[in-house]
């Protein structure tokens, strides 16, 4: 009687044991999948010399091919491996070296030579150098450039910095926002850069006097006479033409990456990625020097782009050829303060209205 009454309990325990064993059997694949190394070992054979031989000869099976409609592209391919090697072994170190070296040079230059102050006292009389439209274009493009540079650096190096510090969840959200900002602001930056390049083209055409400016170091070193310069000096022209060449290459390659639905192949996308990264990293490094010279490195430069006006002394010292053209248009500081809105004659910088 006791055995008969215990039988249902034993039956239930047997079923529970079987369920437990089945559960353990199901858990093992899940545990294997939670381990990336174990998952790779079970899902994809090791990529060895034989696998690369098959890839290059086209002998790969269906597990190695793109599953999209009408695609015969190999998921594992020599071109992708070449891109990975170039990106990891050359592009990423190049970016760190270029940007790090520029920061070191700027720091050493500032510690050794300090800020380039004006050689003569300010007169208090002002010359219009940048219109409201030109300043708006400059600051908009500059802001977009900084945002794109920071988001681009995060895409390239962020996983080595923020992922160990904050963990996967924070890093994943950060990267998602970074990609959205970079992808959507890039085309806007490209359109505005083309506008600003077209507007400032005539001021930045090379002239024979530019070489003398470079030979004298742009006047940043020493107390001698500052080299001759028109509206744009040699250094500003170099920055302009870097934007007009490397900058446009970065924009074009970025559009190839941003809009992959126009028939470009993966090989094209890979090379566009390399061009985009190298150009952007190089421009970021040079931009640090441009920012330093226009702010901390040279007295009076920042206020010109901030207010539109520069002091006579600054104009005479840094852009003497331009100053000679416009010196009769200088106005007192109180007149500048009284101008709440640009008048009809302020549509272009001084010196160009009289041409």
From TrEMBL:
Where does the UniProt annotation locate this protein? Cell membrane
Enumerate the UniProt keywords alphabetically. Cell membrane, Electron transport, Heme, Iron, Membrane, Metal-binding, Oxidoreductase, Signal, Transmembrane, Transmembrane helix, Transport
Does the UniProt entry include the keyword tRNA-binding?
A: no
Chief place where the protein resides: membrane
Q: What Enzyme Commission number does this protein have?
A: 1.17.1.9
Write down a Pfam family by its short name: Ni_hydr_CYTB
State any single GO MF term.
Answer: formate dehydrogenase (NAD+) activity
User: What cofactor(s) does the depicted protein rely on?
Assistant: heme
* Family stated for the protein in its record: Belongs to the formate dehydrogenase gamma subunit family.
Q: What is this protein called?
A: Formate dehydrogenase subunit gamma
